[in-house]
């Protein structure tokens, strides 16, 4: 490959890096939400009662200059309590609570990281094919 070919390939890659990265990041977010929902489908994660908590998980991907970012999360109030539990809590009317943690997010983090690396490698291959 000569330098003129390389320059052309780099220019084409620079024009496409934003859309390609955004598409790949959206795939990571979708896979991450799916894994968290899977982990929140019974022990060792939380049990499913109505399915509303599990369905509340979302991935929000946004384009940023020359790339994208994704946030995975839930607005459900029980999210932190289910993930981390709480120890020796007494509410305002004197009821005593103990809930062990039912981790479902932390076990998904390695999978999400591996998926992110895989998608970024695929993006580089796509940009330079």
TrEMBL record:
Record's keyword terms, sorted: Plasmid
Protein name in UniProt: Sle1_129 protein
Species this protein is from: Streptomyces leeuwenhoekii
